[in-house]
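Researcher: I'd like a candidate sequence for this fold, 237 residues long. If you have to choose between options at a position, lean toward the conservative one.
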């Protein structure tokens, strides 16, 4: 399944680039730990690093602010979001209230095409992790949960889930203790199997356990991070 959020080719300085491509590059850098929380994303510096104008950078930053990956502060500029311990716990508690029941509903409603889409999504998660693209892997892992909410056909809840997932993707990227298992693909595979069999109770139980495992896998202690220039952080993305 093609993912429009992540473009297939890196930005080349001097070549035309869209705001979507700039947002893609910044998103990868944030979710792959290349840019630390709290880092100021200067329009001039980002534009210089990626070879694009300030207007394109500004549009990209607004898109990332909508995803809660970036915070735009009046008269100060844009900064990589810095979720704290309290917010991390609250977000996963909210997800644990919503998503298990959503998984049960998805199991009751899923059709063959839905299950096929979920399996293709899993293949993309595995590919991203296998290629070392942890930023894309984290994003895809979160979008897997959004897709389940959409299959459940719960429009209002799906909007809540999408908002929570975008914020928790940053939390997972920043605080996950086991990078090699960041996608928890075995849990996602078990969820797809339960949904494919129409096992609502099983899907609900697996989803709850998965979210508990994600929260328990976070190291929420403050850790010093090595300062790296934006130019270096964005190089090669």
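Model: Candidate sequence:
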């Amino acid at each position: 399944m093609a993912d429009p959020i992540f473009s297939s080719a890196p930005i080349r300085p001097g070549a035309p680039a869209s705001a979507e491509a700039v947002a893609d590059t910044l998103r990868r850098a944030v979710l792959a730990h290349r840019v630390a929380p709290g880092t100021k994303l200067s329009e001039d510096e980002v534009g210089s690093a990626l070879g694009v104008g300030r207007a394109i950078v500004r549009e990209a930053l607004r898109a990332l602010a909508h995803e809660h990956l970036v915070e735009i502060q009046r008269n100060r500029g844009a900064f990589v979001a810095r979720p704290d311990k309290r917010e991390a716990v609250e977000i996963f508690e909210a997800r644990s209230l919503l998503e298990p029941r959503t998984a049960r509903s998805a199991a009751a409603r899923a059709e063959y095409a839905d299950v096929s889409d979920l399996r293709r999504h899993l293949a993309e998660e595995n590919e991203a992790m296998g290629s070392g693209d942890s930023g894309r892997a984290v994003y895809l892992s979160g979008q897997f949960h959004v897709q389940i909410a959409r299959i459940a056909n719960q429009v209002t809840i799906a909007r809540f889930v999408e908002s929570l997932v975008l914020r928790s993707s940053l939390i997972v990227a920043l605080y996950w203790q086991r990078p090699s298992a960041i996608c928890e693909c075995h849990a996602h595979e078990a969820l797809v199997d339960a949904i494919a069999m129409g096992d609502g109770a099983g899907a609900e139980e697996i989803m709850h356990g998965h979210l508990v495992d994600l929260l328990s896998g976070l190291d929420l202690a403050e850790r010093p991070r090595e300062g790296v220039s934006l130019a270096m952080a964005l190089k090669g993305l």
